Amino acid sequence: MDKRFIAELAKIAGEEYVSTRQDVLLAYSQSASMAIDPVMPGAVVRPGTSQEVAQILRLATKHGVAVTPRSGGSSLQGEVIPKPDGLVVELLRLKDIKLHPELRSVTVGSGVTYGELDKYLKERDLWIPVYPESSLVCTVVGNVAVNGAGPGSSLFGCTGELVLGVEVVLPDGRVVQTGSEANPNAPGPFQRYAFGPDLTGLFIGSLGALGIITKVSMKVMRRMKYFDYCTYGFDTAEQAERFLIEVKEEDINGLFVSIYDGDVIGLFMDMLGDELGIPKTDWPHRTVPMTIGRVREDHLKADAETARAICEKLGGRVLGVPELPRMEWDGRLWNFVRACYAHGWHWRTLYHHQTPTNSHRSVDEISATMDKYGFLGHTAGFHSGHASFNCYPHLYFDAQEKDEEQKIRDAHRELASTLYKTGAVPFKLAAYWADALEGVQDYMDLLSLVKNTLDPHGIMNKNVLGGI
Ligand SMILES: Cc1cc2nc3c(=O)[nH]c(=O)nc-3n(C[C@H](O)[C@H](O)[C@H](O)COP(=O)(O)OP(=O)(O)OC[C@H]3O[C@@H](n4cnc5c(N)ncnc54)[C@H](O)[C@@H]3O)c2cc1C
Questions:
Q1: How far apart are CA 111 and CA 126, in angstroms?
Q2: 160 Cα to the center of ligand 1, angstroms
């Protein structure tokens, strides 16, 4: 990388926050995306303010240097892998947290992790009720940039639903605030849909391709204290899917409601059952763990009774097994992920949303692909909002075997196309979806137009957002 460029970077951020050391760059060449090849950047810079970010983007535009914004580096689909000899802008030094108690909102800098924010809010009896399982390392801004979801989404939808506004630095160095805070006289973030079209939404899921988000304002809520953990069993996929719909229709506060195929829960329990103290169970065709949460205890009791009644009316069985939803909610699913890591598996993932009544089609397609290519893997999912279901298929493979590596890429490409044909929609528009997206040319053209307008020199995380 050009020495004068590095010297100018150091002038902006301070020498100690710029590095071209190979061992440092090695750390930034990869992410938690285990199945994607690392790429060495040319330099990393760690700005401490929005103004420094602005100066860095202006400089990168002037020199035509490819920029990859990076926060926690925990994304799984290669979004944060840098460009060869490009610049990584790591945003973890922006650590401000500002609570607006009367507006029920909080503004955080791009370096604040979910874990740090949750600790801060817990001391005040508050929370942000959607909480990704990677929370100890993933930042709130990073999760907004990928349009994430997680425990809590069954009731509150994806992370984006809780966003009130962002401060974003455009590639030309302009610093723009969206939402009610665009009015400098506003008391704080209280309304996202201000000033016409939803420009906040433009940056939700933008994967660092349109600019750098330096702050995000989020809704906060009173922390729920009363929880009911219960597992329900069904003999058919249709019953389980219907259960999810009726839970919504009856206004039950299902914070996290998953569906597991019998084989998948069997696989996990073989790995973890003893350790978690989950009794040996003859798992039914579909297992549905649900955590219900309420601020008031009497409301919780009514919800729990109604849920059990719906299950029985649909011909299901109330299995109990509270350890399972408790592990999902209190443990943020971490045990499942840990089990995969502990067994040394690499995964390929194809996160997508289905409708609840279509979720079995994802399970069927994923199972068929695993059978066809001979891969082990798992899939499960959770209710992710009003009428959507987040599926997270993981195909495991041995990265040391070059043949397997090629085979997994082929299987992944094929599966993206098959899932798309079942009506699935990608919510993290990672590049590998690009080949599968038929019939959305006008939409993708519009996205390209937006990208080219905001980033005419094409410096921001190119070829990531749906391959744009
Ligand atoms: C064990 C495990 C569990 C996970 N569970 C979940 C889960 O439950 N839900 C979920 O949604 N995800 C989950 N993930 C994926 C990952 O944690 C999320 O994608 C997370 O939001 C990424 O945040 P990050 O701070 O690590 O961002 P990074 O990985 O650093 O970046 C992610 C993307 O956002 C861009 N970006 C980063 N910072 C900025 C910024 N300031 N401005 C603009 N663009 C930026 C990057 O360029 C990249 O495209 C999991 C990952 C792991 C390893």
A1: 20
A2: 13
